[in-house]
Amino acid sequence: MPVLLVKGHKEVLEPLSKSPAISFGTAQKFFLRGAGAASYIVKKPRYRTLIGIFKDSFPSELTRYKEWTYLDFDSQQPNLTILDKTKLEPYVRHLKDLAVEAAFGEVVYMKIIRALFPNSMEVPDNYLHIDPVTGEPWIISRLIPDFNEFIEKKLTLFLGGSMKSAAEWDERAKPSRANLNFSNNELYLLGKLYCTALITHDWDIVNNIMLSNSGCLGDSLTAKKVVVVDGGNKFHFGFGGLTCAESASENPQFNYGAKTIPAHRGFNFTLPFDIEVFLTLPRQLIGDLFALDNEFFMLGVTDMLREAKASLEANSSCIQEAVNLAYEQISEDSDKTTKERLTNRESTLLNHSYYRGGRRSGYILEKILIGRINSLDNLLKHLSEGYSVESLNQETLECYQSAQRFS
Q1: Which regions of 57-136 does DSSP assign to beta strands (E)?
Q2: What's the domain of life for this entry (predicted)?
Q3: Which residues sit opposite 4 in a β-bridge?
Q4: How high is the pLDDT of residue 20?
């Protein structure tokens, strides 16, 4: 079982006998307990296949292995020829590295949004554990008491039940925001979540199954703090294990050769992760959930943006300090080799310049997030001057298309 360093003390986690009543999503999850009454949810990554990541670049002579995950490779190694094993190894290593980075990215994400929104945001304490036997990354999150997934609850009440997959929505009429009867305070909270999603490029702040992944702390009629508990698709991390840039190549608006898929499962509105903000989030079940036509919603957006700007004014290094803290959230008994690769600046597991900064310019997480805060600030000013979301989105889309042509 994982060993965490919690406030300077080692804490050995044990299985939790009874699972809490919370939504599960699609990733494999189980529960652990720590010292006292602390409960933790453990999320294992969805296992990506070789063909899912490498697509047409995967060698044709290895086609029979295309549906393998890195766990399949590990279990079948004794049955492989030396030649096939040698050819597969770099591809499998890349799959593993992607899984580890994605898990580490969730730890980074929670640290950053806590730093940017110290008064308005509650997030779980996240830890990364690398199984010393299988090499699998686990994301260990301490459960938040009084977490209220009010958006999901509203949808469940409207439907009279729950959906189990996004595909179930393909032939079903989708509700509008009005159908869910949000109070003014709930609309204010939605605005805060929307602002968070735009700044951090979080495409999954509400998921496309039952609008879970976020909510508030306590009663949604009076709550002031929002809560985000999942960070699988944020920053440069796109859908299905792809980067945002790779996801954007499947977006018919960005790449005219891409095929159209139902909007709540497709790649519409996906763009690369950089400093310009696009005001529409992809894969939204409710098309107007984040519509900017309500004063309470917009107050939530502007208050959240103001808090991010104030955090940077108070401490211009708060984002980079948050990233550095994430490196301290790796379990004590994680696989030693992977742990060393995560923390060693010379390692190729992570792009350390991107995460740790240290340069004045370049593709650096801290610089991009600051740029997105400034971009959103400018967009809100344009909206107040009468510009439409559609016209501003078109300008942003053309900006990214132009950058793509000249890159």
Answers
A1: 121-122, 126-130
A2: Bacteria
A3: 11
A4: 57
Average pLDDT value over all residues in the chain: 92
Range of the domain at 383: 147-312+367-406
How far CA 3 is from CA of 13, 35, 39, 257, 284, in Å, comes to 6, 11, 14, 49, 38
Gap between the Cα atoms of 369 and 387, Å rounded: 24
3-state secondary structure of 164: coil
Does residue 138 lie within any of the structural domains? Answer: no
**Do the beta carbons of residue 13 and residue 34 sit within 8 Å?**
yes
Answer yes or no: are the C-beta atoms of 110 and 328 closer than 8 Å.
no
Give the residue-averaged pLDDT of 127-147.
93
Residue 56 lies in a domain: no
Quote the CA–CA distance of 111 and 113 in Å, as a whole number. 6
Q: Report yes or no on 347 lying in a domain.
A: no
Listed range (32-36, 95-99, 247-251) with the worst mean pLDDT: 32-36
What dihedral angle (degrees, nearest 10) is formed by the CA atoms of 194, 373, 272, 265?
A: 0
Residue 51, CB half-sphere, CA atoms under 13 Å: how many? 9
**Looking at beta carbons, which pairs linking 254-261 to residues 24 or more positions away fall under 8 Å?**
254/397, 254/400, 254/401, 254/404
AA letter at 235: F
Cβ atoms of residues 158 and 289 within 8 Å: no
Query: pTM above the 0.85 mark?
Result: yes
Question: Are 199 and 165 spatial neighbours (Cβ–Cβ below 8 Å)?
Answer: no
Helical H segments across 175-231, by residue range = 184-200
Q: What residues have CB less than 8 Å from 398, skipping those under 6 apart?
A: none
pLDDT in tens, 298-339: 999 999 999 999 999 999 999 999 999 999 999 999 999 999
Q: What is the pLDDT of residue 27?
A: 60
Question: What letter represents residue 65's amino acid?
Answer: Y
Q: What tokens appear for 16 in the block? A: 């939790």
Q: How many domains in the chain? A: 1
Q: Are the CB atoms for 31 and 42 separated by under 8 Å?
A: yes
DSSP state of 34: -
Q: What is the DSSP letter of 243?
A: B
Q: Is the Cβ–Cβ distance between 22 and 215 less than 8 Å? A: no
* Closest-CA residue to 232 (of 48, 95, 109, 363): 109
Phi then psi for residue 205, to 5 deg, are -65, -30
CB-based contact 1:12 (threshold 8 Å): yes
